[in-house]
């Protein structure tokens, strides 16, 4: 693998200013705080973590919806920030979580799926035929093109969102929790479709989820985020077989597989919750960490490479 | 220890506009037991629970052959009688605690109110109990939390407060409607673990409504699988997972990605199509359009069969029908 | 879509009938009136409505103090009221929606300016400024429309701003950005169509308010100039005769009340209807 990775993040950070009212001091929320990774072409990279860990912000940075505060995102070795909106759209497309808010309720399916084509200046007749072909490709009948989103079920809407993401034949698709708003039976349909499209079209997938079972099923590599940083990053098998970071261990322990009689595991994280506006000093996980020692309160752990994985923990 | 606390037979709920959301549901919850009601959105699981609590929205009508709680006939109870039971001997917690906590009052005053209303307890005594319960559900510094407003708490803390509030009057039955769906996975595990501990300690009966088969497997003594307003399969948890018999239950279990079960990137099992709308007067099996085993007789009356005592299912297929035929 | 209670549907239907009826009368006034509304007949002054004692079949609602046919003046008055209502809403809507959408969409510095403008506007006493402007410049239809239009945009701005802020964060707008759409395309095609149903409701409220304000200005002698038969002016002219001929004040008064009620009913109905289609 000497080719440039399909997508690469180099020390990317995003800081939001909150409360810019006249009388309140601005708070700085470090949503993404120095994240680096690289995904080879055709790979499926999973990003897991709890709400507030910055995984959705990272997705939006990669989609170019926000500018990064610092750091670079590179696609095929070129800076995303240097690309025009049309060029970026041809390379990267999103699939969002909620199929109810991700489709404009006042436009017909044809216009929704054809929107990226229209933005590239493609003409109406070509849009119609390409939309029809793409709808069939994601398992919808072409006659759906004339319907409104409200006339479709959740699973059908998510297929529409996937069709919209693929119509420009992008190289990279960023999936932000694409199945968590769906019923289990529909979730399986969508996961199968994504896996099939990835194989057939050679897509590079960035798969963001809080559902570790889903990530394990679909991803080759996984990064675990906590309060804006990647605390562990490894190949899926290695990560799930032997998690090194205590937070990864807690996350894995809380996966409830359908095996009766196993009971509910003790994740041992206490009742404090992470707040990205108030990141603790030292190791940012120490207030919840079951194995924290005194050094964790003061010393910031640096990323360390251990047997094919990167971990940010003083004790790993 | 298997005294039936809640006994529902033939529950039906109909909405204006000619849709029937619940079509003859029967379920029983024993003391100290967790009964999981599992199904996909729109299957009628939440509506069933609301019907038991007499909390249905206006325009919905409820009927049942029998509905009894600890020997009391709920069908004959008026609104005042029901209000005496609700929050007292049977309590309910919801998916989004913010909708059931009043944003204008402190946690303490809301919790105390429950006990003062039902038990006539003094404010002092009620607040003491509230503080003790907050401690019991794993909240540090309960005294401080009592003075806070709901929006000052995180999602996990709010759900703990809801649980503590539900426990104020020592309920016998706790109905939990997707209590952890809005929470992060680690917090979900903590909340579910708490429910298990409380059940062991207080002998609570829990009716747990969820769409997550992982939760069902880890929590339930007994499981009822709902589809399109009916219970299509009901069995002790171990038996249901060992020998799922209704094609829908089998399909649902195949859909869940479980470590080691399916190779990475390989196809997950899935159920084709979507949940149908069931018009009034619908007969036969509502699953037949999505079922690989469907036969012409499936549009007629479907017999309720028994695999082993305690394991019932609603399908024409024999108990040990071969799995492979499904593919 | 048949979700809302029957009483509200009846009210909405009634509102639609009233507004359409008045609009019809306003548009086709020259064809509908039985007499010339400006023609004075001093021999037939203060004739009561035809159903009262002394009434004449030729004058259904009687005549005024100059012997002009009251029904004809009422129909021509509808023209003034509807014209003022519609033109004011267009003017104020253009100002308010532009400001609100820009503030809500761009946020930051732009939004600060918009919020400042809204706050300033809300601190201006409406009637007082309208009165002084009209008395300074002199009253004409155009002056009244522009004065009201420049004053009544605040509610449009507030509603457009908050709804734009909500819609802006929705995933379909993010998807449009990611699809490479231009800023103006997203504003006009993705955001605006999804806030329009809120703005229509505001438009009905503002229209009713504008009609009432015009009546108030005309009553005070500062609205449309006298030969034009505005309902407010009719009430004003009638106030000297109301003790002996109460109908001269009741006829335009009731017409004004019914029209404003109808517009409000229609607004409520539209809110229910548009809200329902959105959530369906």
UniProtKB/TrEMBL annotation, chain A:
Translocase as UniProt keyword: yes
EC number assigned by the record: 7.4.2.10
UniProt-annotated location(s): Cell inner membrane
GO cellular component, one term: plasma membrane
Stretches assigned to the ABC transporter domain: 7-252
Coiled-coil ranges (or none): none
Keyword annotations of the record: ATP-binding, Cell inner membrane, Cell membrane, Hydrolase, Membrane, Nucleotide-binding, Repeat, Translocase, Transport
Oligomer and partners: The complex is composed of two ATP-binding proteins (GsiA), two transmembrane proteins (GsiC and GsiD) and a solute-binding protein (GsiB).
One function term, GO molecular function aspect: ATP binding
Top-rank taxon, per record: Bacteria
Signal peptide bounds: none
Pfam families: ABC_tran, oligo_HPY
Main location: membrane
Catalytic reactions on record: glutathione(out) + ATP + H2O = glutathione(in) + ADP + phosphate + H(+)
Name of this chain's protein: Glutathione import ATP-binding protein GsiA
Role noted for this protein: Part of the ABC transporter complex GsiABCD involved in glutathione import. Responsible for energy coupling to the transport system.
Keyword Hydrolase found: yes
Topology term for the membrane: Peripheral membrane protein
Similarity comment: family membership: Belongs to the ABC transporter superfamily. Glutathione importer (TC 3.A.1.5.11) family.
GO biological process: peptide transport; transmembrane transport
TrEMBL record, chain B:
Source species, domain of life: Bacteria
Subcellular location: Cell inner membrane
Membrane topology type: Peripheral membrane protein
GO biological process: peptide transport; transmembrane transport
Domain ABC transporter: 6-253
UniProtKB keywords: ATP-binding, Cell membrane, Membrane, Nucleotide-binding, Transport
InterPro entries named in the record: AAA+_ATPase (IPR003593), ABC_Ni/Peptide_Import (IPR050388), ABC_transporter-like_ATP-bd (IPR003439), Oligopep_ABC_C (IPR013563), P-loop_NTPase (IPR027417)
SMART domains the record matches: AAA (SM00382)
Gene Ontology molecular function terms on file: ATP binding; ATP hydrolysis activity
GO cellular component: plasma membrane
A Pfam family recorded for this sequence: oligo_HPY
Annotated family: Belongs to the ABC transporter superfamily.
Protein name: ABC transporter ATP-binding protein
Lineage: Bacteria, Pseudomonadati, Pseudomonadota, Alphaproteobacteria, Acetobacterales
TrEMBL record, chain C:
Domain of life: Bacteria
PROSITE patterns assigned to the protein according to its UniProt record, in alphabetical order: ABC_TM1
Annotated membrane topology: Multi-pass membrane protein
Primary subcellular site in the record, as a coarse category: membrane
Subcellular location: Cell membrane
GO annotation terms (biological process): transmembrane transport
CDD domains from the UniProt entry: TM_PBP2 (cd06261)
Gene Ontology CC annotations of this record: plasma membrane
Chain segments annotated as transmembrane: 12-33, 80-106, 126-152, 200-224, 244-266
Domain ABC transmembrane type-1: 78-267
Keywords, in A-Z order: Cell membrane, Membrane, Transmembrane, Transmembrane helix, Transport
Pfam annotation, one family: BPD_transp_1
Family: Belongs to the binding-protein-dependent transport system permease family.
Protein name (record): ABC transporter permease
């Amino acid at each position: 693998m000497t080719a440039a990775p399909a997508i690469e993040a180099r020390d990317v950070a995003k800081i939001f200013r909150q409360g810019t009212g006249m009388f309140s001091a601005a708070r700085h929320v470090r949503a993404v705080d120095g994240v680096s990774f690289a995904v080879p072409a055709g790979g499926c990279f999973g990003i897991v973590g709890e709400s507030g860990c910055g995984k959705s912000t990272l997705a939006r940075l990669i989609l170019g919806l926000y500018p990064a505060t610092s750091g670079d995102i590179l696609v095929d070795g070129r800076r995303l920030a240097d690309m025009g909106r049309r060029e970026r759209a041809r390379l990267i497309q999103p699939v969002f979580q909620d199929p109810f808010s991700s489709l404009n309720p006042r436009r017909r399916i044809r216009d929704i799926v054809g929107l990226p084509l229209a933005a590239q200046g493609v003409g109406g007749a070509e849009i119609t035929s390409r939309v029809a072909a793409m709808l069939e490709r994601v398992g919808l009948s072409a006659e759906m093109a004339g319907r409104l989103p409200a006339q479709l079920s959740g699973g059908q809407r998510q297929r529409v969102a996937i069709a919209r993401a693929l119509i420009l034949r992008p190289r990279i698709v960023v999936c932000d929790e694409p199945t968590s708003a769906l019923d289990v039976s529909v979730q399986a349909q969508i996961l199968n479709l994504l896996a099939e499209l990835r194989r057939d079209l050679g897509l590079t997938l960035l798969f963001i989820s809080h559902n570790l079972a889903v990530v394990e099923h679909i991803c080759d590599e996984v990064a675990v985020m906590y309060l804006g940083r990647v605390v562990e990053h490894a190949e899926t098998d290695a990560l799930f077989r032997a998690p090194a970071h205590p937070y990864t261990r807690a996350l894995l322990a809380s996966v409830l597989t359908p095996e009766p009689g196993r009971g509910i595991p003790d994740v041992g994280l206490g009742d404090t919750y992470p707040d990205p506006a108030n990141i603790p000093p030292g190791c940012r996980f120490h207030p919840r960490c079951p194995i924290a020692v005194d050094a964790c309160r003061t010393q910031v752990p640096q990323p360390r490479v251990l047997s094919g994985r990167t971990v940010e923990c003083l004790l790993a | 220890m298997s005294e039936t606390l809640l006994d529902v037979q033939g529950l039906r709920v109909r909405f204006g506009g000619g849709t029937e959301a619940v079509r003859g549901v029967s379920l029983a919850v024993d003391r100290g037991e967790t009964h999981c009601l599992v199904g996909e959105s729109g299957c009628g699981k939440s509506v069933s629970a609301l019907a038991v609590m007499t909390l249905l929205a206006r325009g919905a009508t409820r009927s049942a052959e029998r509905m009894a709680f600890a020997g009391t006939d709920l069908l004959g109870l008026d609104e005042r009688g029901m209000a005496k039971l609700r929050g007292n001997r049977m309590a309910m917690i919801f998916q989004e605690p913010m909708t059931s906590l009043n944003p204008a009052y402190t946690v303490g005053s809301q919790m105390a109110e429950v006990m003062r209303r039902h038990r006539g307890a003094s404010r002092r005594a009620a607040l003491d109990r509230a503080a003790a319960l907050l401690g019991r559900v794993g909240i540090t510094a309960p005294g401080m939390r009592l003075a806070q407003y709901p929006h000052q708490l995180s999602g996990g803390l709010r759900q703990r407060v809801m649980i503590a509030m539900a426990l104020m009057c020592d309920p016998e039955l706790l109905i939990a409607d997707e209590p952890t769906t809005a929470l992060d996975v680690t917090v979900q595990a903590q909340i579910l673990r708490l429910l298990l501990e409380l059940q062991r300690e207080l002998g609570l009966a829990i009716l747990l409504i969820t769409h997550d088969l992982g939760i069902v497997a880890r929590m339930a003594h007994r499981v009822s699988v709902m589809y399109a307003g009916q219970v299509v399969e009901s069995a002790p948890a171990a038996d249901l997972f060992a020998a799922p018999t209704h094609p829908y239950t089998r399909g649902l279990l195949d859909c869940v990605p479980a470590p080691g079960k399916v190779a990475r990137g390989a196809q997950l099992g899935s159920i084709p199509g979507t949940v149908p709308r069931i018009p009034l007067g619908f007969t036969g099996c509502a699953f037949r359009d999505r079922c690989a085993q469907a036969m012409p007789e499936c549009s007629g009356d479907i017999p309720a069969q028994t695999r082993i005592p305690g394991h019932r299912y609603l399908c024409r297929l024999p108990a040990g029908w071969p799995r492979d035929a499904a593919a | 879509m048949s979700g809302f209670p029957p009483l509200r549907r009846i009210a909405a239907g009634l509102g639609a009938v009233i507004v359409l009826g008045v609009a019809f009368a306003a548009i086709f006034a020259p064809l509908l009136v039985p007499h010339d509304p400006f023609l004075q007949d001093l021999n037939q002054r203060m004739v009561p409505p035809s159903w009262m004692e002394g009434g004449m079949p030729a004058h259904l609602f009687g005549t005024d103090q100059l012997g002009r046919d009251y029904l004809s003046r009422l129909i021509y008055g509808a023209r003034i009221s509807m014209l003022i209502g519609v033109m004011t809403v267009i003017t104020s809507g253009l100002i308010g929606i532009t400001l609100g959408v820009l503030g809500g969409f761009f946020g930051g510095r732009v939004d600060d300016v918009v919020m400042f403008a809204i706050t300033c506007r809300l601190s201006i006493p409406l009637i007082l400024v309208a009165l002084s402007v009209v008395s300074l410049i002199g009253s004409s239809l155009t002056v009244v429309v522009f004065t009201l239009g420049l004053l009544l945009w605040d509610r449009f701005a507030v509603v457009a701003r908050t709804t734009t802020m909500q819609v802006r964060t929705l995933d379909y707008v993010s998807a449009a950005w990611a699809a490479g759409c231009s800023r103006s395309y997203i504003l006009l095609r993705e955001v605006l169509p999804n806030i329009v149903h809120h703005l229509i409701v505001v438009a009905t409220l503002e229209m009713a308010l504008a009609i009432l304000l015009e009546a108030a200005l005309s009553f005070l002698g500062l609205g449309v100039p006298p030969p034009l038969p505005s309902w407010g002016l009719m009430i004003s002219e009638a106030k000297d005769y109301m003790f002996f001929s109460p109908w001269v004040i009741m006829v335009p008064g009731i017409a004004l009340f019914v029209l404003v009620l109808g517009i409000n009913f229609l607004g409520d109905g539209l809110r229910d209807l548009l809200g329902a289609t959105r959530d369906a």
